[in-house]
Specification:
The protein is α/β, with parallel strands linked by helices. It has twelve helices and 14 strands. The protein binds S-adenosylmethionine (SAM).
């Protein structure tokens, strides 16, 4: 069976070929999550995972997945080697009269390249022209472009003389859960924070402490996972405006996601510490907005004076590493004091630290037993694990 035949048969049967776009380093756990939520043929790729799903499953993934930035639903694939084949391929790729009325806005993103189409900006313009020219022929008017909140978000991937047209179901990136209006200094993206907690192996049964918690993202994502909260229940999605949107099926998946939540589950202590009073306020605000006031305590002050719950437990943290905030000498002292504190007071605990600067991490004077490469907003980082004896 050829790949093309498999794809066509799938499309006839209502099987969707999808891509989950993931942060670097979360590909394996991202793929695992897709499988657990019912996706088929899941294959981890670089910064992504490919999968197959029916519509109910695609809705479920949007509502419940914690790690992806977005999901791309493939709607067409066609040979494409130059401007012309792209232009006409796009016009024939979708029933545009159903999917994009001129009253709707859209945006185009492009990845990959072909020998004849090597500039993604130029390729995106060509795709836009193909769509608006067709609209003008049909209706005498065209859609406007909206980069922030488009009604339809198109993604074109070029590779090996082929173009793939996909629809982005999320609208705005899925890391925006809706609870974090206040962001602190150098916050982690919510999906990356969720993945880091998952990689730490914290299972929701022992205390979790973030001694430098900023806006509280690691703790919020940990509690949300432990209570099986669905990250997508309190936001909207571009897929709700798709021509084939099935409101009944969507509501069924929303009910299903809600039913999984365990709001009464008793959690161990989840404690954050933050020295900047404004950021403390923001963290408390975020915790409340996430519906987790009873589950997480944010303490104001310096971590050096933090009283730890009786352990053993897990420490997670993302200390400043100089790229964005903080000064070098002060930071060396901070890492050195953090190392001293955990060695003195956290025997039997486990420490996971996001490092963006190996020299600073050296000041901990501890040896990591695991190093997971991850990208934090384009900065090459390591999620480091230390067993404290
Ligand atoms: C990189 S940020 C953490 C971001 C956090 N993971 C988030 O997602 O918002 C580091 C935080 O450590 C705080 N911090 C720095 N020195 C501290 C200290 N001695 N005690 C407690 N907090 C400190 C900073 O104010 C900052 O908010």
């Amino acid at each position: 069976m050829t790949e093309a035949w498999h794809r066509q048969t799938n499309r006839r049967r209502g099987v969707i070929q999808g891509i989950a776009v993931l942060p670097q380093g979360l590909e394996e756990i991202g793929a695992e999550e897709l499988v657990n939520l019912g996706a088929k043929q899941v294959q981890p790729l670089r910064r992504a995972a490919a999968f197959e799903a029916d519509m109910a499953c695609l809705y479920r993934l949007h509502l419940q997945c914690r790690y992806p930035f977005r999901f791309l639903r493939e709607v067409a694939r066609f040979p494409c080697h130059d401007r012309e084949s792209l232009y006409f391929g796009i016009q024939n790729a979708l029933e545009w009269e159903r999917w994009l009325h001129p009253s709707m806005s859209f945006r185009v993103d492009v990845s990959g390249s072909n020998p004849g189409l090597s500039h993604s900006h130029y390729t995106a313009l060509q795709v836009k022209n193909a769509v608006v020219d067709l609209q003008r022929n049909l209706w005498g008017e065209r859609s406007s472009i909206d980069l922030d909140e488009p009604d339809l978000s198109l993604h074109v991937h070029l590779s090996r003389q082929e173009a793939r047209l996909s629809l982005d179901g999320s609208g705005g990136s899925l890391h925006r859960r809706g609870y974090r209006s206040a962001m602190g200094l150098a916050p982690l993206k919510e999906n990356l924070a969720a993945g880091l907690v998952r990689l730490s192996g914290w299972d929701g049964s022992i205390p979790l402490v973030d001694p430098l918690c900023g806006s509280g993202t690691l703790l919020i994502e940990a509690a949300s996972w432990a209570l099986s909260q669905a990250p997508g229940l309190h936001r909207s999605f571009a897929l709700e405006g798709w021509a084939d949107f099935n409101a009944e099926l969507w509501e069924e998946e929303q009910r299903r996601a809600q039913a999984r939540e365990q709001p009464t589950r008793t959690l161990p202590i989840l404690l954050g510490c933050e020295q900047n009073p404004d950021v403390v306020e923001q963290a408390r605000h975020n915790v409340q907005a996430a519906g987790l006031s009873g589950a997480i305590t944010i303490q104001a002050g310096d971590f050096r004076a933090l009283e730890l719950p009786s352990g053993p437990g897990v420490l997670v943290c993302n200390p400043p590493y100089g790229e964005r905030i903080g000064e070098r000498d002060e930071l060396e002292q901070l890492y050195s004091d953090l190392g001293a504190m955990v060695k003195e007071r956290c025997s039997g605990w486990s420490l996971w630290l996001l490092s963006g600067n190996p020299e600073l991490t050296g000041a901990l004077r501890m040896k990591a037993s695991r190093r997971v490469p991850v990208s934090n907003g384009g900065i090459d980082c390591r999620w480091l694990h230390y067993e404290i004896r």
